[in-house]
Design a protein that fits this description.
Helix content of chain B: 25-40%
Number of helices of chain B: 5
CATH topology of chain B: Alpha-Beta Plaits
Mean pLDDT of chain B: 86
CATH class of the largest domain in chain A: Alpha Beta
Helix content of chain A: 25-40%
Radius of gyration of chain B: 27 Å
Number of domains of chain A: 2
Distance between the termini of chain B: 111 Å
Largest sheet of chain A: 5 strands, parallel
CATH architecture of chain B: 2-Layer Sandwich
CATH topology of the largest domain in chain A: Rossmann fold
Largest interface: A-B, 66 and 59 residues
CATH architecture of the largest domain in chain A: 3-Layer(aba) Sandwich
Distance between the termini of chain A: 72 Å
Shape of chain A: elongated
Strand order of the largest sheet of chain B: 2-3-5-6
Strand content of chain A: 15-25%
Low-confidence stretches of chain B: none
Strand content of chain B: 15-25%
Structural class of chain A: alpha/beta
Mean pLDDT of chain A: 82
Oligomer: heterodimer
Shape of chain B: elongated
Low-confidence stretches of chain A: none
Number of strands of chain A: 8
Order of helices and strands of chain A: EHEEHEHHEHEHEE
Number of strands of chain B: 6
Chain lengths: 193, 172
């Protein structure tokens, strides 16, 4: 879908300028991405992809929606930086929507727009190479490395008993181990250890 | 004349552009990349969750299943390495991995689930097994007697022992 030249409209949606500088870096001679035909354009109407940098502040929300509407189909959204991916350090602040996930919810509920294909590029800010990798992922030039990992500890009842025995058998061997104490009250006997 | 000199300079410097997506690059020493939890080392003490500024690391207890969940969401991480500094067992480390782009948000999560100890008296899960064993290694053996009690039950029991020592009870 995006195998040829990708024209990108760069939208600062409340970023701290860190990611913006990294985006500008990839057009410098060291990571010259114009060799892949990637180019920054001045209007979303000319763009194939829109790059969001920032957690989408309330002030920038209507502008972001307008810009996203103006990009012709098929479109691609690059969420650059941790702020755009999940809200970053401002994920629960009052002035901030909190990443593209919340942005898509608002899009569906209030504007009735289907969310476009999204590339999440986490990093604070992401390395210029990380952004290039993200764009290469959109073109299917590289394989996705990041995967969801779930680890579930397995501990059956016998192991639990063993652990308890190890802990307490050591304690019982020592001189300072408290012996069982029986306390007498008016109601009856209560055995205490 | 000036232009010729410029061409000569450009030729002498040579090519500066990296061949990045087709050839790997090296990252500098001390680069802060993707944090990874080593699930075999983690004890579930939640020190990292306390230190994490954007709460990308969250620790919560599932009391029904008796499981402590350490949930790491990479999409919110700011790569400050505070979790690495506070981790007592060096379970969480910042690797040099920077190629983290994904097509779906689901892939940005790492979940570690650890079994919890149930209190001997009230049966409420209160701490992970690994954390209890970690603490037991620090304590002398005679102080391990109340390790399997939840904090509330432990307070009750300790107060009973103290009141007994002050003459509240009688030895039969």
């Amino acid at each position: 879908m995006f195998e040829k030249s990708l024209w990108v409209f760069h939208l600062n949606s409340g970023s701290c300028n860190g990611c913006d500088i990294e985006v500008l870096n990839i057009f410098a001679p060291r990571q010259d991405v114009e060799r892949f035909g990637i180019k920054l354009v001045g209007s979303p109407r000319h763009a194939d992809a829109i790059a969001f940098t920032g957690p989408i502040t309330r002030e920038s929300l209507p502008k972001a929606v307008e810009a996203l509407k103006a990009v012709p189909e098929p479109k691609l959204l690059l969420a650059i930086g941790s702020c755009a991916c999940g809200g970053g350090i401002w994920y629960d602040t009052y002035a901030v929507i909190g990443g593209v996930k919340e942005f898509y919810k608002i899009l569906k509920e209030e504007y009735n727009i289907e969310p476009p294909t999204t590339i999440y590029i986490p990093g604070c800010p992401p390395k210029p190479e990380a952004i290039i990798y993200g764009v290469a992922l959109a073109r299917k030039a590289v394989k996705q490395k990041q995967k969801k990992e779930i680890y579930i500890e397995e501990l059956n009842e016998d192991m639990r008993r063993e652990i308890a025995e190890i802990l307490f058998s050591e304690a019982k061997g020592t001189r300072h181990f408290l012996p069982n104490i029986v306390v007498k009250t008016k109601e009856g006997e209560e055995s205490e250890s | 004349m000036g232009r010729l000199r410029l061409i000569g300079k450009a030729i002498s410097i040579g090519r500066v552009t990296e061949k990045y997506p087709f050839a790997p690059i090296e990252v500098p020493e001390g680069f802060r990349g993707k944090p990874v939890i080593n699930p075999d080392e983690c004890i579930g003490c939640s020190a990292c969750a306390n230190a994490c500024p954007p709460q990308a690391l969250q620790v919560y207890d599932d009391l029904k299943r008796g499981i402590r969940v350490i949930h790491f969401f990479l999409g919110r991480c700011i790569f400050c390495a505070r979790c690495q500094d506070v981790c007592p067992t060096d379970a969480i480390r910042l690797t040099k991995e920077f190629e983290l782009a994904t097509l779906s948000e689901e892939d940005l999560h790492q979940v570690v689930e650890l079994q919890m100890v149930r209190c001997k008296e009230c049966g409420r899960p209160f701490d992970t097994f690994r954390h209890v064993i970690y603490l037991a290694k620090e304590l002398p053996p005679e102080q391990r007697t109340m390790m399997f009690l939840c904090p509330e039950c432990r307070a009750k029991k300790a107060s009973k022992i103290i009141s007994f020592a002050k003459g509240g009870g009688k030895i039969v």
